[in-house]
């Protein structure tokens, strides 16, 4: 047997390591993936092969019921990337967790609408006074948005009767049973039920841009798997751009992943890719930061007791994983 020179053995070993690193498969975690609208671009990125094309071998997308669960999955599961709500991430960072915000993913709360039964006497936002308005759970985004919404017409939380219902689908049931008079709904649940309900006001028409969810990574992932993170963000950007250019095809993809009727999924995607008159930012962003929207969401979360501090964005945000053209904020 011919003896291989040591230099060739070393070169072969290094090449093998490089190949292993390039082929590394990893999961990512996305809050409410398969349920809420924020995660729809990841379904498109998987279906269209954008992760693969950009060099990110994403083996699967874990879902979770919300911010705290997503962060626990990210840290406990030794995962590299997650999409999660802003206030939960800020609180986790301030508690000493090794997390960093690397992208601003959903720039508005445009998936939300306030709806009533067709025969309801509630015709406009001013009719909300004294009414039972549903929200999901305490300290939730829906609760915070209810407070912001009534404030736009000079009312306070004491002028309405907020009712904890526990979920968006549950609010539809509660509305039909008369337990609430206004349901706070979000796509795709809204699109599923829009034929049986009447919209009173849309968040896109009544509220300013509010940071909805962000992309986060651990310090360990940033140090060891930076190329993977950059590839994930590039692939998500391609998916978002595809959704705006081809909303019906994107809707068909979402329908399969979210187990929705294709017509409902198409409607949901069209709703969220069509900017409201006067809107300044899209629903799905491609990563660029809107600090004003982040501040506004933090203020809204303070209103429901979900957060009480003042974030130091300079320490929490790392823009280095975004493409060069996205590093300048809105």
Please characterize this protein's 3D structure.
There is one protein chain. The protein is α/β, with parallel strands linked by helices and 330 residues long. The chain has two domains: 19-108 and 210-326, Periplasmic binding protein-like II (D-Maltodextrin-Binding Protein, domain 2, 3-Layer(aba) Sandwich); 112-206, D-Maltodextrin-Binding Protein, domain 2. The protein is built from 15 helices and eleven strands. The protein has a six-stranded mixed beta sheet with strand order 2-1-3-10-4-11, with helices on both faces. Helix 6 links the parallel strand 6 and strand 7. Helix 2 crosses helix 11 (226-245) and helix 12 (247-258) crosses helix 13 (262-273). It is globular and about 55 Å long. 47% of the residues are buried. The model is unreliable at 1-23 (pLDDT under 50).
Domain count: 2
Query: How many E strands?
Result: 11
Query: What is the arithmetic mean of pLDDT?
Result: 91
Shape type: globular
- Amount of beta strand: 15-25%
Radius of gyration: 22 Å
- The separation of the N and C termini measures 65 Å
**Could you give me the name of the CATH homologous superfamily of the largest domain?**
Periplasmic binding protein-like II
CATH architecture of the largest domain: 3-Layer(aba) Sandwich
- Unreliable runs, pLDDT <50, ≥5 residues? 1-23
Class by alpha and beta content: alpha/beta
The CATH top-level class label of the largest domain: Alpha Beta
The percentage helix is 40-55%
């Amino acid at each position: 047997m011919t003896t291989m020179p040591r230099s060739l053995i070393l070169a072969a070993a290094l090449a093998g390591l490089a190949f292993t690193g390039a082929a590394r498969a990893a999961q990512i975690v996305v809050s409410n993936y398969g349920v809420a609208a924020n995660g729809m671009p990841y379904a498109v990125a998987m279906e269209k092969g954008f992760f693969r094309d950009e060099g990110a071998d994403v083996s699967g997308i874990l879902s979770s019921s919300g911010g705290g669960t997503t962060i626990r999955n990210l840290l406990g599961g030794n995962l590299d990337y997650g999409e999660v709500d802003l206030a939960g991430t800020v609180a986790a960072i301030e508690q000493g967790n090794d997390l960093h915000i690397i992208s601003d993913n959903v720039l508005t709360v445009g998936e939300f609408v306030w709806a009533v039964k067709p025969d309801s006497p509630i015709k406009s936002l001013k009719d909300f006074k004294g009414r039972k308005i549903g929200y999901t759970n305490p300290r939730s985004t829906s609760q915070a948005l209810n407070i912001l919404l009534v404030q736009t017409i000079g009312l306070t939380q004491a002028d309405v009767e907020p009712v904890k219902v526990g979920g968006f689908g549950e609010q539809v049931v509660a509305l039909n049973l008369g337990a609430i008079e206004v349901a706070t709904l979000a796509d795709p649940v809204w699109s599923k039920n829009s034929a049986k309900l009447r919209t009173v006001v849309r968040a896109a028409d009544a509220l300013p841009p509010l940071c909805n969810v962000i992309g986060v990574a651990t310090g360990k992932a940033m140090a060891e798997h930076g190329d993977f993170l950059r590839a994930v963000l590039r692939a998500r950007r391609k998916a978002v751009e595809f959704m705006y250019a081809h909303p019906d095809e994107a809707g068909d993809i979402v329908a399969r992943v979210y187990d929705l009727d294709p017509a409902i999924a198409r409607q949901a995607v069209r709703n969220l890719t069509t900017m409201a008159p006067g809107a300044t930012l899209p629903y799905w962003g491609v990563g660029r930061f809107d600090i004003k929207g982040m501040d506004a969401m933090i203020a809204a979360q303070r209103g429901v007791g979900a957060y009480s501090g003042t974030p130091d964005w300079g320490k929490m945000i790392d823009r280095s994983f975004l493409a060069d053209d996205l590093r300048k904020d809105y």
